[in-house]
């Protein structure tokens, strides 16, 4: 089932490539059909998921579900042994929620792609290839396979931004590509080092198996990343150095301050569907990678770095919020709000408490839906009048009441109003950060106090924007025909927005919908990193 979930978009992309151009108006329906099928499959996986299957620990292969494991590459390397790379897929409570999020965000992004009018064959082929890569990252349990999917995301994103973006699209695409590639190149060196450090006890060969990498007993004596007799590189522990390299690679995706500068440029220049994918899914790949790779494989180094990771989290929260407060472009404001809200993910992970990690996971799922909703709403304004400047709009509630209602829901949900998912996520994150000092002594309580200021600032920039753009006297500072172009929400747009509103409300009122499915995995993860 996981293979079908991953490669169905790739099959659809190949089908689009061989279809004659006279059928180009059907490409979007093919992409939409794929996203609907993926969403139905992900819901089926959610309903059938055994939430109590992780009591024996997260570093046991038997604790993963829907496992697919086949020999992929076998090569005799002489004295070194045999090269062992498997096609290895599986999910647990930490990866399963991202399958539903990926399918839902892709569905919304596909509906937003109705505005794309040029080079439709290339656009939808690249869009579907990106879909395959993102789902693959959340399912891969072989590090080599994980890296292939992780790198595969770069190619379609580069072209989707560079070919269908705004005026400075080439600059934004190259900046995004170089930032991400910088982290990926050094990640590859760590992956190679891990391969030659870990032995598969079943075969005696070195392996890329991520689950085996989580068990210190599988590291060969004297290897560079041996947990027993750690080596030093450049005067620092090799394991700590590897953790830092991997953390930076994933932190670029999150992104954290000061590695965030690619994000506002990419969002502003990217077309609306790609902004939705960037904020809704790509940022979550960074957070997921920290949990699945950095913390699970190098828990000792993660504990040593917890204070600094927590500090980076609160810096991102405050810095992102202050920058959002200063923006005049609505899309750039939401981009900086993403930097701020993803800081809570770092704070929750750094706490290494059950509440903190659960809050971080919920924050990623919540923010994925809410940021997709926000960028879709901005895209609706831009599609109508080709303008996003906050100062150019006032009193929009008078002519776009339904649109205003969706904006109010998105803004209030994002600022953490009780009853919405972001409130639950940030509350659990702050509880985990506050209790960390007492539970494990990793991060001090003042970090949770400072982080709470970010919630206040988010209320300031969202409410101020709402007041300026949607209330007061109707005033449009653009062309004379703006009034006729600013039509209210149509049926296609409602179809995209209503599921996102439902997700925010469902997780806000019934967070157990997510917590029950991932709680055993979170407990096993805490046991792994604290043991």
Low-confidence stretches: none
- Fraction of residues in β-strands: 5-15%
Distance between the termini: 33 Å
Mean pLDDT level: 90
Rg over CA atoms, rounded to whole Å, is 23 Å
Structure summary, number of beta strands: 6
Counting DSSP H or I runs of 4 or more residues, the number of helices is: 21
List the keywords.
mainly alpha, 531 residues, 21 helices, 6 strands, two-stranded antiparallel sheet, globular
Secondary structure layout:
Elements: H1 2-18, H2 27-48, E1 65-76, E2 82-91, H3 96-112, H4 120-139, H5 143-152, H6 154-164, H7 169-195, H8 210-213, E3 232-233, E4 236-237, H9 238-253, H10 262-269, H11 272-297, H12 299-304, H13 306-325, H14 330-351, H15 354-385, E5 393-394, H16 401-414, H17 421-439, H18 446-470, E6 475-476, H19 482-485, H20 491-509, H21 512-530
Antiparallel strand pairs: 1-2, 3-4, 5-6
Helix pairs in contact: 1-2, 1-4, 2-3, 3-4, 3-11, 3-15, 3-20, 4-5, 4-6, 5-7, 6-7, 7-9, 7-10, 9-11, 10-14, 11-14, 11-15, 13-14, 13-18, 14-15, 14-17, 14-18, 15-16, 15-17, 15-20, 15-21, 16-18, 17-18, 17-20
Walk me through this protein's architecture.
67% of the residues lie in helices and 6% in strands. It is mainly alpha-helical and 531 residues long. A two-stranded antiparallel ribbon has the order 1-2. Strands 3-4 form a two-stranded antiparallel ribbon. Helix 15 packs antiparallel against helix 16 and helix 16 runs antiparallel to helix 18. It is globular and about 75 Å long. The model has no long low-confidence stretch (mean pLDDT 90).
């Amino acid at each position: 089932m996981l293979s079908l979930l991953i490669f169905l978009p790739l099959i659809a992309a190949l089908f689009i490539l061989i279809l004659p151009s006279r059928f180009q108006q059907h490409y979007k329906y093919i992409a939409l059909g794929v996203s609907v099928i993926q969403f139905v499959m992900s819901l089926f996986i959610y309903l059938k998921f055994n939430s109590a299957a992780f009591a024996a620990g997260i570093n046991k292969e038997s604790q993963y579900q829907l496992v697919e494991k086949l020999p992929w590459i076998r090569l005799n390397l002489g004295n070194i042994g045999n090269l062992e790379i498997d096609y290895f897929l599986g999910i647990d409570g930490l990866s399963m929620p991202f399958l539903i999020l990926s399918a839902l965000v892709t569905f919304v992004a596909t509906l937003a792609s109705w505005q794309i009018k040029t080079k439709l064959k290339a656009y939808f082929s690249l869009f579907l290839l990106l879909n395959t890569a993102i789902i693959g990252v959340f399912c891969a349990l072989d590090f080599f396979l994980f890296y292939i999917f992780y790198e595969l995301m770069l190619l379609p994103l580069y072209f989707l931004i560079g070919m269908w973006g705004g005026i400075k699209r080439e600059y934004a695409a190259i900046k995004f590509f170089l930032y991400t590639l910088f982290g990926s190149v050094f990640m590859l060196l760590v992956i190679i080092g891990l391969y030659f450090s870990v032995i598969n006890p079943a075969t005696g060969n070195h392996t890329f198996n991520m689950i085996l990498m989580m068990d210190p007993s599988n590291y060969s004596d004297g290897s560079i990343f041996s947990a027993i007799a750690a080596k030093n590189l450049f005067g620092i522990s090799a394991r700590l150095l590897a953790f830092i390299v991997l953390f930076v690679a994933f932190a670029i995706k999150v992104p954290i301050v000061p590695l965030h500068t690619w994000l506002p440029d990419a969002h502003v220049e990217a077309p609306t569907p790609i902004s939705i994918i960037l904020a809704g899914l790509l940022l979550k790949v960074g957070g997921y990678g920290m949990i699945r790779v950095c913390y699970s494989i190098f828990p000792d180094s993660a504990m040593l770095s917890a204070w600094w990771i927590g500090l980076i989290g609160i810096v991102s929260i405050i810095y992102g919020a202050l920058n959002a407060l200063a923006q005049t472009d609505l899309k750039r404001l939401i981009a900086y709000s993403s930097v701020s809200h993803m800081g809570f993910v770092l704070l929750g992970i750094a706490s290494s408490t059950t509440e903190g990690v659960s809050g971080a996971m919920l924050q990623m799922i919540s923010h994925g839906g809410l940021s997709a909703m926000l960028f879709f709403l901005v895209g609706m304004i831009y599609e109508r009048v080709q303008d996003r400047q906050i100062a150019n709009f006032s009193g929009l509630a008078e002519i776009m009441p339904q649109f205003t209602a969706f904006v109010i829901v998105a803004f209030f949900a994002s600022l953490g109003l009780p009853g919405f998912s972001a409130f639950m996520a940030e509350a659990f994150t702050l509880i985990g950060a506050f209790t960390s000092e007492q539970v494990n002594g990793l991060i001090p309580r003042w970090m949770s106090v400072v982080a709470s200021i970010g919630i206040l600032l988010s209320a300031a920039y969202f409410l101020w924007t709402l007041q300026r753009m949607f209330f007061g006297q109707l005033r449009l500072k653009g062309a004379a025909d703006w009034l006729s172009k600013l039509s209210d929400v149509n049926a296609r747009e409602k179809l995209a927005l209503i599921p996102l509103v439902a997700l925010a409300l469902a997780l806000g009122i019934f967070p157990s919908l997510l917590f029950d499915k991932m709680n055993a995995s979170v407990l096993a993860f805490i046991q792994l990193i604290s043991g």
